[in-house]
Write a structure and sequence with these properties.
27% strand, Heat Shock Protein 90, alpha+beta, 159 residues
Length: 159
Amino acid sequence: MNLALPDALNPVEPEHGVLVRMQLSLPRDARYVALMRQVASCVMSDFGVPTEAIDDIQLAVTEACGNAVRHATGAAEYSVRLGVGVEACEVDVIDMGPGFDPPPLTSPTHADFETGRGLYLIQALVDDLQFIREDHATHVRLVKRWPGVKLPEPAPSDS
């Protein structure tokens, strides 16, 4: 199921100013969720991403990775892809678990839900949220946009 806006741009394609693209494979252990949160924060901070966007991605990544740890039964690990561009970042949390049917994310006040509130939180923190099931893997894709950042010019080297 794809819940992204129909005209969502891939923020980490070359025409959007890719700064970094990386992938980590992590054990399905809650201790490593904080590691991924810190990696995302560090990378984004180094590229001058606005603090508010970093904070939102940190919390959204924590929720998405926590869900993979809790629910991707049958898999010993999951992967996180992080792409940071000049104006946006894209995070894919990929697990080989059994998959799920995401709830409609239109009404966070549904009276009788006991779980799944993290998905509402993720949706509130990012600009686009997609759930993609392919090749026996579940991808939760998060996209966060901000006004373009200007990287400092490299210092001239002494020849």
